[in-house]
């Protein structure tokens, strides 16, 4: 069975894979009450023990929008660090993750006001916006060692339309 | 003279204060050519030498939208770390910075596809979206020591409408 039904992204469902970063949980008010600060929402994790050059950085990704149904056969993971995807638009995007290459992947759909942080080593699909502009700020590992493992499924998966 | 004319945000004009993070400069193609990676665009800088607990983190800010003309009399800075503001919408926002409390502040207006990273210690105004949702991911210093200095001007400044 190669079909995957997309699920709404929630912190509880996503917990095995990473963090959901949004403005729904506890906050403190700053700036004379004009701003909610939802503090320290991502488990950033960069493998300094394996490579002393590892450090966090912010990069900008601009990805081609995809459409549902969406077919894929590739997942990847980054052994040297966590990777946060912060959408610079209010457009929902697709988040594909897998517990392992042997497990069926899961597909989550954001609500337009959520960023995610993939924990270090989480298997995931490539960046898949569903609308223009496909613009993201990405907080991930900057360093010199190899930081990409890929796995190609023998048969493609299809994320179904809602 | 208390009026400030807002300027378009450009990397050159903003260089004394911080980094402009956008998809305009050099990139490498990833994900089979489907994604531009504009690599490592922010000078992250967290003062490990003054406080060993300092580390970067990602918080979510939700700020009340303001309107132009915008009156303010407060600027602040963070001696322990840089601070990046990544808008989670395509709405332009206002960025107020000052070389020092004795210098006239400057006001920059983003183009809807720009994030910023304030360098460590840069004097700046509070988070000022100009439209809903006022949602930002903020990459800044997480730690236990004091990290806020404020300066209140004897007279308010006014950022004029365009």
TrEMBL record, chains A, B:
InterPro entries: RmlC_Cupin_sf, UAH_cupin, Ureidogly_lyase, Ureidoglycolate_lyase_dom_sf
GO aspect biological process, one term: allantoin catabolic process
Pfam families for this protein: Ureidogly_lyase
Catalyzed reactions per annotation: (S)-ureidoglycolate = urea + glyoxylate
CDD domains, A to Z: cupin_UAH
Superkingdom as given in the UniProt entry: Bacteria
Coiled coil ranges: none
The keyword Hydrolase belongs to this UniProt entry's keyword annotation: no
Keywords: Lyase, Purine metabolism
Recorded GO MF terms: ureidoglycolate hydrolase activity; ureidoglycolate lyase activity
Subunit structure: Homodimer.
PANTHER family xrefs: UREIDOGLYCOLATE HYDROLASE, UREIDOGLYCOLATE LYASE
Name of the protein in question: Ureidoglycolate lyase
């Amino acid at each position: 069975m190669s079909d995957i039904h997309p699920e709404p992204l929630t912190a509880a469902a996503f917990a095995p894979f990473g963090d959901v970063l949004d403005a729904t949980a506890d906050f403190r008010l700053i700036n004379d009450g004009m701003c909610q600060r939802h503090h320290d929402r991502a488990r950033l994790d960069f493998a300094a023990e394996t490579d002393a050059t590892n450090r966090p950085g912010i990069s900008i990704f601009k990805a081609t929008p995809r459409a549902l149904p969406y077919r894929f056969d590739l997942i990847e993971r980054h052994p040297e660090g966590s990777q946060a995807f912060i959408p610079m638009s209010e457009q929902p995007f697709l988040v594909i993750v897998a517990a392992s290459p042997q497990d069926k992947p899961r597909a989550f759909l954001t609500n337009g006001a959520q960023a995610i942080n993939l924990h270090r080593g989480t298997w995931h699909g490539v960046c898949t916006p569903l609308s223009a502009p496909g613009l993201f700020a990405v907080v991930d590992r900057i360093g010199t060692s190899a930081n990409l493992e890929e796995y190609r499924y023998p048969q493609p998966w299809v994320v179904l339309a809602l």
